[in-house]
């Protein structure tokens, strides 16, 4: 374990120089108070849970104090927002405080979100409100606990600093961690501003820091692009299998590492709905739940365009072509496991597709359906779930197919099937209404609910005593919360 003042910095990105980021100091928020912290994320920095309680912790993560070795920087990038190219974005309200390496030798970017204005703030105030900071914190840690790659969150620091959105709110800061905050849009920026030297430096940096295994390849850039395609195929498969809707899949919100990143109006599905749009400002449904798959591929093609100076177009096209089959293979694998199946059969895709068609418009809770299916022997579970479906007859027919299919699994007892299913089907997910309850309390100065919810979500697959209310379907009001981009 280390003390907070013993973190070891190695600011590799900052050393790339001023073409890549601008030196900016955090602008403090007033009367900082710890809203919530993550022991698991603290441990990534070799810090103990108690460190979060120290006064100096609140000073640092509210922008009042800084390590001597930190080198806070606002990173420049651009990106495609809702399909249109925006030539200049960048960290408008977040700062890369520096890169820390831990005792295990891992590098972590320390990124303080809500740290005040930067040269990239455009019309914005550089702030993040308490509500969006809590949502980002909970989502990062909940996704990680589900096994879905994500940036991590160490803490949320609340304050008395007023911020104006649709109404007056309070400013907050989140300290988030990721091995890198480089985005698709970072490459797009140097490509579209025609800075080939800087584009090359960025490429070399990303290769050597984050994809060193590709350097041994005859064409390192192509190998790296292939890996980015593979990682994104796997990531999106996990989102789709677990019902996570990102909401703002602009290319500036897509991590080069294939992790969930830059949370906005995200949501987990309650009732299953392929067409669900979680972002109230997304009028055309560009980032609807089912569109996340083609959009990820579209975003990868935008990245590919920015890599054309390094890689032949044919090779890029061929590699992009791997996305859908890779996605499909990962998705099928996850969905099979969610149904308790361990090996592949030709009819599986149809079995899964039929289930989702039956769920659509039936008002079936996506998470609880899979969990309940593993609660009892299959026939018993199916009998208790059937009433949720509009087309009960077709659901019964589907259930018979599932039982026949499960019988073809080798060496599997009913008990093994149930244990296997519970290990991949969460009981607790970050439902929008649960986040909202926690936010409402936090806005009144009570942080117990955020902390309790965070604890529950850290072990989503294990039933926890006294926490049954977190594993229920949302109340009617909780299904229709309008979450906008304003954060
Ligand atoms: P986002 O939608 O959060 O990914 O942000 C898109 C762009 O707007 C990024 O360049 C952000 O840094 C910037 N931005 C968002 N909110 C603010 C804000 N309150 N102040 C300054 N810049 C912001
Ligand atoms: Mg963003």
Description:
By secondary structure, the chain is of the alpha+beta class. Among the domains are: 181 residues, no CATH class; 86 residues, no CATH class. Helix content is 40%, strand content 13%. It has 17 helices and 13 strands. The strands form four sheets. Strands 1, 3, 7, 8, 9, 10 and 11 form a seven-stranded antiparallel beta sheet that branches. It has a two-stranded antiparallel sheet with strand order 2-4. β5 and β6 form a beta hairpin. α6 packs parallel to α8 and α7 packs antiparallel against α8. The protein is globular. It starts with 7 loop residues before the first strand and ends in an 8-residue tail after the last helix. The model has no long low-confidence stretch (mean pLDDT 97). The protein binds adenosine monophosphate (AMP) and magnesium ion (MG). Adenosine monophosphate binds next to loops.
């Amino acid at each position: 374990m280390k003390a907070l003042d013993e973190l070891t910095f190695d600011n590799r990105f900052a050393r790339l120089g001023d073409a890549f980021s601008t030196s900016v100091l955090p602008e403090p928020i007033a009367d900082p108070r710890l809203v919530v912290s993550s022991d698991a994320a603290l441990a990534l920095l070799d810090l103990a849970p108690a460190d979060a309680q120290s006064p100096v912790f609140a000073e640092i993560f509210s922008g009042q104090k800084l390590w001597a070795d930190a080198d806070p920087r606002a990173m420049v990038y651009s990106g495609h927002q809702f399909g249109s190219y925006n030539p200049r974005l960048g960290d408008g309200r977040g700062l890369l405080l520096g890169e820390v390496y831990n005792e295990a030798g891992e590098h972590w970017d320390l990124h303080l979100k809500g740290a005040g204005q930067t040269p990239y703030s455009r019309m914005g105030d550089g702030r993040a409100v308490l509500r969006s900071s809590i949502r980002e914190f909970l989502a990062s840690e909940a996704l990680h606990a589900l096994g879905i790659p994500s940036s991590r969150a160490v803490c949320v620091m609340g304050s008395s600093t007023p911020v104006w959105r649709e109404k007056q709110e309070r400013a907050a800061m989140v300290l988030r961690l990721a091995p890198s905050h480089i985005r698709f849009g970072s490459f797009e920026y140097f490509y579209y501003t025609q800075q080939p030297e800087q584009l090359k430096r960025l490429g070399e940096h990303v290769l050597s820091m984050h994809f060193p295994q590709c350097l041994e390849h005859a064409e390192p850039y192509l190998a790296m692009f292939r890996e980015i395609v593979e990682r994104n195929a796997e990531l999106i498969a996990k989102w789709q299998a677990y019902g996570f809707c990102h909401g703002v899949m602009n290319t500036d919100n897509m991590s080069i590492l294939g992790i969930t990143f830059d949370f906005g109006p995200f949501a987990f599905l309650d009732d299953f709905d392929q067409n669900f749009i979680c972002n109230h400002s997304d009028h055309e449904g560009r980032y609807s739940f089912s569109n996340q798959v083609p959009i990820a591929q579209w975003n990868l093609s935008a990245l590919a365009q920015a890599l054309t100076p390094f890689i032949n177009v044919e090779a890029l096209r061929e590699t992009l072509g791997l996305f859908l089959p890779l996605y499909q293979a990962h998705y099928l694998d996850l969905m099979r496991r969610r149904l308790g199946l361990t090996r592949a059969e030709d009819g599986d895709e149809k079995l899964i597709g039929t289930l989702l068609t039956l769920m659509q418009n039936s008002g079936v809770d996506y998470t609880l359906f899979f969990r309940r299916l593993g609660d009892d022997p299959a026939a018993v579970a199916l009998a208790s779930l059937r009433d949720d479906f509009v087309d009960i007859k077709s659901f019964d027919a589907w259930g018979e197919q599932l039982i026949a299919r499960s019988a073809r699994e080798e060496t599997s007892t009913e008990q093994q099937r149930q244990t296997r299913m519970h290990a991949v089907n969460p009981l607790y997910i970050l439902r929008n209404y649960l986040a909202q309850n926690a936010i409402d309390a936090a806005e009144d100065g009570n942080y117990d609910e955020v902390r309790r919810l965070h604890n529950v979500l850290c072990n989503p697959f294990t039933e926890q005593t006294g926490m049954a209310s977190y594993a229920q379907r949302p109340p009617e009001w909780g299904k229709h919360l309008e979450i906008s981009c304003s954060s």
